[in-house]
Amino acid sequence: MGEAHVICEDPPKEENYDGGYNSRSRKNSLWYEEEIDEGLKWTYSVSRVLHTGASQFQDIALLETQPFGKVLLLDGKMQSAEADEFVYHEALVHPALLSHPNPQTVFIMGGGEGSTAREVLKHKTIAKVVMCDIDKEVVDFCQMHLSVNRDTFQSKKLDVIIRDARLELEDCVEKFDIVIGDLADPMEGGPCNQLYTKAFYQNIVKSKLKNGGIFVTQAGPAGILSNLDVFPSIYHTLKQVFRYVIPYTTHIPSYSDVWGWVMASNTDYIYQNASDIDSIIKSRINASLKFMDGETYSGILKLNKQQRQM
Amino acid sequence: MGEAHVICEDPPKEENYDGGYNSRSRKNSLWYEEEIDEGLKWTYSVSRVLHTGASQFQDIALLETQPFGKVLLLDGKMQSAEADEFVYHEALVHPALLSHPNPQTVFIMGGGEGSTAREVLKHKTIAKVVMCDIDKEVVDFCQMHLSVNRDTFQSKKLDVIIRDARLELEDCVEKFDIVIGDLADPMEGGPCNQLYTKAFYQNIVKSKLKNGGIFVTQAGPAGILSNLDVFPSIYHTLKQVFRYVIPYTTHIPSYSDVWGWVMASNTDYIYQNASDIDSIIKSRINASLKFMDGETYSGILKLNKQQRQM
Amino acid sequence: MGEAHVICEDPPKEENYDGGYNSRSRKNSLWYEEEIDEGLKWTYSVSRVLHTGASQFQDIALLETQPFGKVLLLDGKMQSAEADEFVYHEALVHPALLSHPNPQTVFIMGGGEGSTAREVLKHKTIAKVVMCDIDKEVVDFCQMHLSVNRDTFQSKKLDVIIRDARLELEDCVEKFDIVIGDLADPMEGGPCNQLYTKAFYQNIVKSKLKNGGIFVTQAGPAGILSNLDVFPSIYHTLKQVFRYVIPYTTHIPSYSDVWGWVMASNTDYIYQNASDIDSIIKSRINASLKFMDGETYSGILKLNKQQRQM
Amino acid sequence: MGEAHVICEDPPKEENYDGGYNSRSRKNSLWYEEEIDEGLKWTYSVSRVLHTGASQFQDIALLETQPFGKVLLLDGKMQSAEADEFVYHEALVHPALLSHPNPQTVFIMGGGEGSTAREVLKHKTIAKVVMCDIDKEVVDFCQMHLSVNRDTFQSKKLDVIIRDARLELEDCVEKFDIVIGDLADPMEGGPCNQLYTKAFYQNIVKSKLKNGGIFVTQAGPAGILSNLDVFPSIYHTLKQVFRYVIPYTTHIPSYSDVWGWVMASNTDYIYQNASDIDSIIKSRINASLKFMDGETYSGILKLNKQQRQM
User: Fold this and answer.
1) Where residue C115 falls among pLDDT bands split at 50, 70, 90?
2) Which of A293, B287, D118, D268 would bridge with D152, disulfide CB 3.0–4.6 Å?
3) SS3 D52
4) Does C192 touch chain D (CB under 8 A)?
5) Alpha-carbon torsion A268, A269, A271, A273, what sign?
6) How far B271 CA sits from the closest chain C CA (Å)?
7) Which of B133, B182, B185, B257 is catalytic?
8) B5/D111 Cα distance (integer angstroms)
9) How many CB atoms lie within 10 A of CB C101?
10) Cβ of residue A223 closer than 8 Å to a chain D Cβ
11) Average pLDDT of D213-235?
């Protein structure tokens, strides 16, 4: 007997004892899957679960992923990826601030992660940033675990308020040079929720902007095959309220899609040429930008034929 | 303008504001994927990450999964699933204990999860169970988070030792009625590691069994298309050392495979008929078994033609 | 410039020119995914699409898969895998034929693939096999492309009828020693369709069995965590009609589940012991069986405690 | 008995009989998975396998997919998706042709699919297009099955040659206004293969361009997180050979990445402004373009800061 049978006479090459019965020779892994559309999935490997938490609103998790580094999830939804959040946040913040002649005060609706405030605080002209997010646990979680934003949360210029941004903006007496919408897409709660309505822009946002103030908001997917319920509707809604409205887009790898933003103002200085932008960056920003410069700025403002036909 | 454009006049059906920019209308989920073989994957949905920890040996995680309830992972490897761990642990423990006329003392190599000890302690005859696992954090983690084993870890009869099971067994002067191998497959550290060698069975395990003692070990995958490096080699290795060696198998849903175990002894009373097993269960076990009884016992001992040809 | 830049001076190691623009260095593959349950997926790699066809009832495809060899799909549903179809078909056919003292005529409901007839024709006693499948294209496709069944379709003893099996059985005057149900699960068309009703068994199947005849049918998933709507209901329905009803199960790797069958008769000789089965196989079957023998037979007939409690 | 048991008295709601044993109540589907990077997958649902073929070089398949319509695969690699191939092909063809004052003759290396020739033939100035692809079966397959290119393959102006494009270009005596590289990435056969070397551009491509001729080639992934081995190396290699070299990029949804192309010439008229491009399109193109116009052209030519730093 035993001719073909393995009789284990020998000690092993290496000890490999994990006290469990089941470390089979099978490969195991954790994957984060995003169903971008029916029959279309975007999936990436999760190497470690770093931290988990929960608030009255949602579960919070910070994952270490293979392609995108640390990823922040709220209720299982990807909020931000270490590898490319700079693209989203530089695109959200700098076009508006660079277009404004002297931005000193900024109100951020949402943005509890801290990255939007981080980009705003790179501008020397900034005296005060109000970040108003409804979820205290998210803010605390990010302050504790997102090392890239640690200094931001320390900043004397940052005023963090835990409240519904709409109510806070409604009540506050102060006006701002820049109001930034760093909120969930309106699709979630119906065709468009109260932070994306004409009434909200007309009665609240507009009235809280100083003369020459600029409003900018993220505006959801904007790719050639994207579901375009959000981007065009935000654009056309803002067109009802502001004289100058500029949509712009760029590709965010971790979303596997092109993303859209819309800037709005009643002052037309929001159009700038590339070289002006470069000199403004040099004079006003004392940190380095990884994504934004004059050429980038003038490129992302040019939508392709498909996007413009929306 | 705007004929086809959504102008957001209306308030939303429901507030849905999560303070993040990116809760898109995309479905997101976390999946645990096991590569059972090249080109063959077994994947299940993870609804929540319940607890995470780490030891000097490995990462530890407890996940809530959709198909299998709570799942324990060590270094990303599935150890045990709430939905069917009873099948694995009843099959590991009861055939040997029910075959022995009066099992009083048991040594468990590994088994830090506590479920193997739980099944052993269902036998009224048991006076003492030694559970020897190398990883203290795993034992503490399971004691804290696996509520199903809470009473087990409280038991006066349970003696938990944190050490390499091989060294502990080597050093201990006591002998046991039953020795249970609840360890990782030998494939991990090479063709077969020191807890599966002929020398280990011959010089250590056998010498720590009382007269009529029985050794039983999990023996890896045993299905018709499984990688059969482990099961046959454990069987044939034990045949070199013990007079009576009985392989047996059953399907474990969460592994998506048939699993194997091997019982070995120098006394031939380990063959029992179904009705004897049923009466032994009635007389000795004061808890209910979900999987094991006489009919089950006699069924799992019968391998099919393919399995026997290994 | 160019210090860090690749300037391509050299010819390539190997030509690799495929006339397309897009053979990027990305790995690509085709996967067949079966959603076994919500949040539970069984997925395997498809190396080639071998043949495709279509009938009035369904699409037909034969795929080359990595783990299971050639796989037959009907309307995207896996029907049979080269690697382990022998387990399903030997388990469907031989217990009934081996239990019968002298099976000469067999009626197969469905079975257009040919594998069920193949197993039946291994029995020397067989004089005639009627295979009645509703889908001519499936039968033609399998006859052309499933080389393993080529001889079967050539057999003089095989009578292939293209028709609804229920109507055919109703109309035919002949009676049979064995009737085999190789049909879709009744779940598809509601709680149970006309080929699984008490009325069908009572009025049609039973009346077409010769004295001592045996009916056997596949009965769907039968694992510990399987959806058990089918297996128990077929068992209990047959119990209303036949005196002796025997459920049995075994694991089918390519389904990643344990499968069930039910044998029914009014004669109790369908219980056999292992050694009898072995001698019957020796005397009656002139081909080799890969899965079935006496030990296998007596093993698969023993359900575990969970299965019996259904 | 039977209290909890389903006894099937009733006929089914609907017949559902497919003559197979195994149409279980499980959902089944075919998926095409692209491993974009380690731990990052792009997966889409395949609703039907439309056509399959094979050549001496590769397998050919045309799949019907849920998110991207018909998809052409060569050796399992995605070549082209019905939903957005116009983006790739308009971006490959029109910038070069629109930059040239009077493009009459074009040589396409590869492009067997026919879509590149289709875009070229939209220009009224074109007198002759040579498409040189090595794989006859691919050309025949696309001619037969890609209805969108049917007219293109009928065109009197199209000259299809089945041969290695490098050898053909080397031997042909004619010179061209435009040479288009619609080939596999050089990464496949090593750091860069003979169709992407400085020697090839210098000695062959350049010498086959008429005065003021333009060479353009696809240049692989060009996103912020893309593997950038190809795009920069093609750019820097062409800079060694041509006086004016223009890289440009845009997002291709079905690749889930930003893609790059590089135009090269010794004449600097290849820089155009948006309004010039629009008027050239109006005067020269008698078909409609879905993606390209002046604004699009000037946008895709502006790389962002990250892309320019490559």
Assistant:
1) very high
2) D118
3) strand
4) yes
5) positive
6) 15
7) B182
8) 39
9) 10
10) yes
11) 92
Determine the average pLDDT of the residues in D242-270: 94
Rounded Cα distance, C244 and C266, in Å = 6
Q: How many CB pairs under 8 A join A and B?
A: 326
In DSSP terms, C45 is beta-bridged to C31
Is residue C128 within 8 Å of C159, Cβ to Cβ?
yes
What pLDDT, in 10s, does the model give residues C179-204? 999 987 765 554 346 778 899 999 99
Inter-chain CB proximity A80 and B185 less than 8 Å: no
Helix (H) or strand (E) holding C233: helix C230-239
The pairing of beta strand D77-81 with beta strand B69-74: unpaired
Location of structure tokens 């007269």: B211
For residue C236, which phi and psi values (nearest 5 degrees)? Answer: -70, -30
State yes or no: chains D and B have 3 or more CB pairs below 8 A: no
* Whether A278 is catalytic: no
Which one of A5, A10, A18 would you mutate to disrupt binding with B, by most B Cβ within 10 Å of its Cβ? A18
Q: Check whether C17 has a pLDDT greater than 70.
A: no
Element holding C210 (H helix, E strand): strand C209-221
pTM of the model: 0.85
Give the nearest partner residue to D185 out of C11, C25, C240, using CB atoms. C25
Token pair for residue C36?
């076994």
CA atoms within 13 A on the CB side of C230: 30
Distance between the two ends of chain B, CA-based, in angstroms? 76
Chain A positions in Cβ-Cβ contact with residue B231 (cut-off 8 Å): none
Alpha carbon distance B13, C271 (integer Å)? 65
**Residue carrying the six token digits 């929306």:** A310
With helix as H, strand as E and coil as C, how does chain B read? CCCCCCCCCCCCCCCCCCCCCCCCCCEEEEEEEEEEECCEEEEEEEEEEEEEEECCCCEEEEEEECCCEEEEEECCEEEEECCCHHHHHHHHHHHHHHHCCCCCEEEEEECCCCHHHHHHCCECCCCEEEEEECCHHHHHHHHHHCHHHHHHHHCCCEEEEECCHHHHHHHCCCCEEEEEEECCCCCCCCCCCCCCCHHHHHHHHHHHEEEEEEEEEEEEECCCCCCCCHHHHHHHHHHCCCCEEEEEEEEEHHHCEEEEEEEEECCHHHCCCHHHHHHHHHHHECCCCCCCCHHHHHHHCCCCHHHHCC
Amino acid sitting at position A243:
R
Q: In chain D, what are the domains? A: 5-79 (2.30.140.10), 85-309 (3.40.50.150)
